[in-house]
Specification:
The structure is a homohexamer. By secondary structure, chain A is of the alpha+beta class. In chain A, 34% of the residues lie in helices and 26% in strands. Chain A has helices at residues 15-33, 59-64, and strands spanning 3-9, 41-47, 52-54, 57-58.
Chain lengths: 74, 74, 74, 74, 74, 74
């Protein structure tokens, strides 16, 4: 009966990509722990970049001026 | 000082229905555990059906092709 | 497919009281929104009173010196 | 590697105010526990006042008829 | 900068199994959305079976008397 | 009526440090948004290092072999 919550920034994830996340994490819980997919629940939250911060700075600002320690693809 | 988070799919819950959820769960915590309603906080999250998955499939697809194991009314 | 998370302070809720919370909130979601109990998931978190604060003060301290604005039974 | 989730009612917090929350809570975790800002993640959720309840009543209604026990500024 | 929270019942997941969950979901977010593993954070919560309910019944009871609609392996 | 959830690894935060987090974040919400401390609720979750992962690796392993990109104090 697992419950999984995935939070990502709202930056254009497609319906197909979200479907792949749901399918993939449900499969992972079945593979690793034998959890029943029928009782595995996945919720994806997409969060505005103004509302997500790392290193004390909103992601909106990090996207404009990416610091060197933060690699691309994050 | 309970905190309750209710997550449902965004499929048209009305303001009145959400009021009933808030009232009902606050009453339940008072009835069962004697919790003070004034410090009971309820937050309802409505989640897009593309962003909610069960059995590895987004709810958007389950609504179109409901599997037999999933009863109506869910 | 609702998911409900109930957070309460760890102050001796019994197994029977927790059963009543699970049963009651599942029934509430069925009554108000017609949600299927079989896909309704409830998780109760019991939190140490040192780790829960209200009005900027840990509940451990509020229990020793309850402020007048905070009624009994909370 | 702290993760902080701040939930507030959606009542007009500005981008600058949200930036201050992100900066302030990241600094707090550094001051109190020595946590590295680069691995401190903050997510702010803004919740509709119909979807937030206290004392069993949605905030939308509390705003119209504020009870005496609830001070202004909340 | 994804954040993933996995909730499972506390029924003996090993350190190695939890490592596989952390590795697998981080890889999934990299594969599907190109998310940087260095800023992907995973938190696993293990919940007592008395504190987790489905179909209005605590998992502790479901384990003793599994209903026919709930397959094994969940 | 803010609700704040702070998740940290369980690595010896003291009762006094947790009190400072509760006090500090409540003050921050009052300073930035004018939120009433009496309805500000803070919950701190301490998570075992086996159950927290970053970069696809449990914190337990990162503590033994800290990667160069991860600064001390995290």
């Amino acid at each position: 009966m697992p419950y999984v919550n995935i939070k990502i920034t709202r930056e254009g994830a497609s319906t197909e990509q979200k479907r792949q996340l749901i399918e993939g994490v449900t499969q992972l819980l079945n593979d690793v722990l034998g959890k029943n997919p029928r009782t595995t629940c996945v919720v994806i939250d997409e969060v505005d970049t103004d509302n997500w911060g790392i290193a004390g700075v909103p992601v909106t600002e990090l996207r404009k001026h990416p610091p060197s320690w933060l690699e691309s693809g994050d």
